[in-house]
Amino acid sequence: MITVKDLTVGWSGNPVLEHASFEVEGGEIFAILGRSGSGKSTLFRFLVGLEEPLAGSIELRGVGAPRLVGGKPTFGVMFQGGALFGDMTVGENVALPLEIWTQLPRQAVLAIARGKLRLVGLEAAKDKLPSDLSGGMLKRAAIARAMALEPSLLFLDEPSSGLDPVTSAELDALMVTLCRSLGVTVVVVTHDLGSILGIVDRAIVLDRAEKRIVATGSPAELQKSQDRRVHAFFSRTVEPSGKS
To answer: Is residue 233 part of a domain?
Structure first.
């Protein structure tokens, strides 16, 4: 679904991540992991086409390089804060991509928007403003909007950030439903170990000091890694000094 080759990302010639190569297979939940400042959200911005790489390439299957502008979106994006429009109702937020990118009649647009909200358990909140929603509801509403155009690829930036354990588990269940039942490929930036161990198929681990990917594999494989940085991440311990 995604092929990344020798990718270097950053700004003004200052790389945050260098020479990264990995692939995301169709129908999997793929996670981008690492400590704060390791470049997870930076990599996310480049994967969804908000920034141009300093070097290397990102290819989406059947699409080419990612773009958020210039045509109908080919993937869905949920940003960390939800990024809903505050002066529009939840239903209007979800309907917006359909109004912009399709020629469907108004009643069809509203019906699809209700269906997406039903999928995330928010149909009853369609007439509420984002300011009336809890943190978990905001995240689910943002996912509903990201799914409005029936994408086969979904990017989620820290979906469980700031949420209580129960709400986080509910979002995990939603991601599994999207992936397993609807065949959506999910790429998620997260540091939530519960989510990582519970639902992720494969992951990459970024290191901020070396500015590169230091490990790739399933959560079970990464838990057994002898690399001190990977071990520290999964065991929640301070990295020892010295080399791996």
So the answer is: yes
Retrieve residue 12's tokens.
């003004």
87-113: average pLDDT: 94
**8 A C-beta contact, residue 13 and residue 61:** no
CATH of the domain at 36: 3.40.50.300
The total of structural domains in the chain comes to: 1
Domain that holds residue 10: 1-74+185-244
The whole-angstrom separation of Cα 232 and Cα 243 is 13
The model's pTM is 0.89
CA dihedral 146, 148, 150, 154 (to 10 degrees): 0
Question: Do 133 and 125 touch, CB atoms closer than 8 A?
Answer: yes
Q: How far apart are CA 130 and CA 46, in angstroms?
A: 27
Q: What percent of the chain has pLDDT over 70?
A: 95
